[in-house]
Amino acid sequence: MQADVIVVGGGVAGLTAALAVAEAGGQVALVAGAIGGGSSPWAQGGIAAALGADDSPAAHLADTLTCGGGLVDEAAARVLTEEAPARVADLLAWGVPFDREADGTLALGREGGHCRRRIIHAGGGATGWHIVQTLASVVRETSRVRLLEGVTVIALRTGLHGVSGVELRWPDGRVGQLDGPVVLATGGCAGLYQRSTNPETVNGGGIVLGWQAGAALVDLEFVQFHPTALALPVPALGERALLLTEALRGEGAWLCDARGRRLLAEGPLAHPQAELAPRDVVARAIHTARQEGPVFLSLRHLDAVAVRARFPNLVTLLQPLGLDLARDLLPVAPAAHYVMGGLWSDQHGATTVPGLYVAGEVAGTGVHGANRLASNSLLECVVFGRRAGLAALAGRPPQGLDELLAAGCELVAEAPLPPPGSAMPAKLGTLLDQQLGVVRDEAGLLDVLARLPEEGAALVARRIALGAWLRRESRGAHFRTDCPAPQSAWCGRIVQQRGVPPLLVPVGAPAQVGGRR
Ligand code: SIN
Q1: pLDDT tens per residue, range 354-396
Q2: Ligand 1 atom closest to 125 (CA)
Q3: Residues near 144 by Cβ (< 8 Å), separated by ≥ 6?
Q4: Which of 71, 89, 132, 314 has a 20 to 30 A CA-CA distance from 238?
């Protein structure tokens, strides 16, 4: 079997890539456990785009850069923010039912780190679900997209010329292969954590496939913890944490201690942007405050009717727990939410391996730097999903790392690295929560490195730990108690590749060191 482009992943990035290829006249094979699955349907807040009369892509870019802790690839972020309005227009044309004001204009919400209202949303806080449902129905009606649903990619086929296709397994155990360039749109790996806002299936599977095919990883130490996941079990979600969208704070929700004191407005954790400070700041503040006692999200001071009308999905999710979104104090704690890093990618999804492209959370484009701006993730799926699909169809060449090695980017560890462990720990998620969470230190990171084998999901976790151990500073979402400040020497991106020593590369590389684009 053959396709012009094979897309792996049925979330927003994969569906967008498939539609872009089909619209350009290519034949697509879309392989996914479930079309419309992954973490996309769990995304609540919305999608950021400079659509307001008082807004501009330049202002959106500036917020993206400010949040990213000095590691945002500005050229990639410019692509993200400038193409955002056009990609939103595509979503509207496909029929995504974004929420509107009474006058019919798109309703714009606000979230942390944004200087103004620019988040469009659907179903209140059910944006991801509405987008994937709409895209999935368009894809199902597109004759150039062949769906291989419920089918698993067990490996990438590689040869002298890079990736040439995929090896597949059907649910009944049959195996087969498919030839063509591959776009991985398999999501991130935050579901590896026990306390996570992602489904367990978001476990870095695409990162492992890429690594095995020789692709480089970047920025993996930067895991974003969402500040406000409900700190109570939700039976409907099993072990997963219920996200209480940042859009709640955008509408005025407060973060309080048990005495009702606003944590980010007064006292030692205060920040000029209060509850709308960047996500890494708020997550650390809640983590710190919880050492003393519970932290609550409170909407009690807001108009209850308006709150319930704005967030109907959360009203419904909280009701079985006996909680009223508008009137109860909601205990919250950070939860693993998103990984800024992934498989090294240029602005068109090209990796370091010919024939292999990436889009969405699995990609390390550098648009998020060390800390992603809220609601830039669904946006990256549509902007870079389209670009990766078209790049794969056109056979865009890869980027090599040779120039980076020649430019002296090799990163020498200060101490010997413990050899990998030999057995997968029984509770990988708990280990990650404890040692690779909001706050890290050298002893915990070395513990993870010594325990985890270099295979499967543990490989991804071990590579997160390696990046976090090498990076002897704190920056963005990566905070180490043993080196709590940013260091200018670390203002670069850590690249890891099988058989190659880790590299610390300048932001914007390889263009800056003459790499192949
Ligand atoms: C949220 O709804 O708070 C999550 C939005 C995001 O992760 O960008």
Answers
A1: 999 999 999 999 999 999 999 999 999 999 999 999 999 999 9
A2: 2
A3: 21, 22, 25, 26, 27, 28
A4: 132
Q: What is the pLDDT of residues 250-268, one digit of tens each?
A: 999 999 999 999 999 999 9
- Sign, CA torsion 437/442/447/448: positive
Task: Write the class of the CATH domain 402-505.
Answer: mainly alpha
Q: Please give the mean pLDDT across all residues of the chain.
A: 95
CA of residue 414 to ligand 1 center, whole Å: 36
Query: How many whole angstroms separate alpha carbon 65 and alpha carbon 372?
Result: 9
Is the domain 228-333 a CATH 3.40.190.10 member?
Answer: no
Q: Is the CB of 349 under 6 A from ligand 1?
A: no
* Confidence category of residue 64, pLDDT binned at 50, 70, 90: very high
- What spacing in Å lies between the alpha carbon of 378 and ligand 1's midpoint? 9
Ligand 1: centre distance to CA 453 (Å): 32
CA atoms within 13 A on the CB side of 322: 2
316, pLDDT greater than 50: yes
- The predicted pLDDT at position 1 comes to 86
- Strand arrangement, sheet containing 217-218: 363-364, 342-344, 217-218, 493-497, 500-505
Residue given tokens 């670390």 in the structure block: 490
Q: Is the CB of 198 under 6 A from ligand 1?
A: no
Q: Cα of 471 to ligand 1 centre, how many Å?
A: 26
Q: What is the largest CA-CA distance in the chain?
A: 65
Which residue has the CA at smallest separation from atom 8 of ligand 1?
375
Question: Hey, which of 375, 377, 378 would you mutate to test ligand 1's pocket, going by the most ligand atoms within 8 Å of its Cβ?
Answer: 375
Q: In 257-376, where does DSSP find H-type helix?
A: 279-289, 304-310, 312-318
Q: What atom in ligand 1 is closest to the CA of residue 228?
A: 3
Residues of the chain with CATH 3.90.700.10: 228-333
C-beta 375 within 6 A of ligand 1? yes
User: Closest ligand 1 atom to the C-alpha of 338?
Assistant: 7
Give 259's contacts (C-beta < 8 A, 6+ positions apart): none
Distance CA 187, CA 40 (A): 9
* pLDDT attached to residue 517: 28
Residue ranges of the chain assigned to CATH 1.20.58.100: 402-505
Burial 334-367 (b: 16+ CB within 10 A, else e): bbbbbbbbbbbbbbbbbbbbbbbbbbbbbbbbbb
Q: Please list the active-site residues.
A: 279
Tell me if 361 CB under 6 Å of ligand 1: no
Task: Provide mean pLDDT across the span 414-426.
Answer: 87
Does the reported pTM lie above 0.90?
yes
Tell me the C-alpha distance between 400 and 396, whole Å. Answer: 13
**Treating both helix axes as pointing N-terminal to C-terminal, what angle do 377-394 and 127-140 enclose, rounded to 10 degrees?**
30
Q: Determine if ligand 1 sits within 6 Å of the CB of residue 377.
A: yes
Alpha carbons 510 and 248: distance in angstroms, whole number: 39
